Amino acid sequence: MVRFVIALYFARVNQKRAKITLPILLLGLIFSLASWMHPFYVGVTHVRINKSQTEAQIEVRLFTDDVQMAFKESGVAFDPHKRDTATLRKLQKIFNKELALFAKNKEQKWDRTNMYLIGFEEEAEATWFYLEIPKLPARIQSWKFQNTLLFKQHPEQVHVVHAEIGPEYRKSEQLNVTRTSFEF
């Protein structure tokens, strides 16, 4: 008889838990589906300065559809499969406006370096853009990288930037609309 009462007690407790658990599970499912449908805007940038600090390479990865929409507003019909010189020139202007690598000289002034877009390639739903700075200024105290790509179109855009100087120094930072640059 005692076993029967204990079993009946746990059956009622489990029924109450089931009544509470089911709505919580449904709410969790609804929120997870809603977050899945919400777009996110993340770009990845690699800034690599060689060990002797004479040249640099920059790689920028952005979602292709976001790039197409943003560049269209700038008058560029971007197609990651076409590489004509007119499009490259227009892209060069956009990247010179939105990306910058600054060098702090011995007078503690920031000098902007000249970067050149050398190409791009599509990878799944994203496009990689490749830029180079073939000649960096000498005797640099520190570097500053700035990235404002897609901030006008998507204020929630985030850029994860990885900076390297030779094999010894690495630093990663997150940039957004309120923090568009960092020093390394």
Largest β-sheet summary: 6 strands, mixed
Determine the fraction of residues in helical runs and give it as a percent range: 25-40%
Total number of helical segments? 3
Write down the domain tally: 2
Report the average pLDDT across residues.
Answer: 85
Order of helices and strands: HEEHHEEEEEEEE
Shape: globular
The fraction of residues assigned to DSSP E strands is 35-45%
Please state how the strands of the largest beta sheet are arranged side by side: 5-6-2-1-8-9
Radius of gyration: 25 Å
Structural class assignment: alpha+beta
Low-confidence stretches: 4-11
Describe this structure in words.
It is a single chain. By secondary structure, the protein is α+β, with helices and mostly antiparallel strands. The chain folds into 2 domains: 1-38; 42-183, no CATH class. Helices cover 33% and strands 35% of the residues. The strands form 2 sheets. The protein has a 6-stranded mixed sheet with strand order 5-6-2-1-8-9. A hairpin with a 3-residue loop joins strand 8 (158-165) and strand 9. The protein is globular, with a radius of gyration of 25 Å.
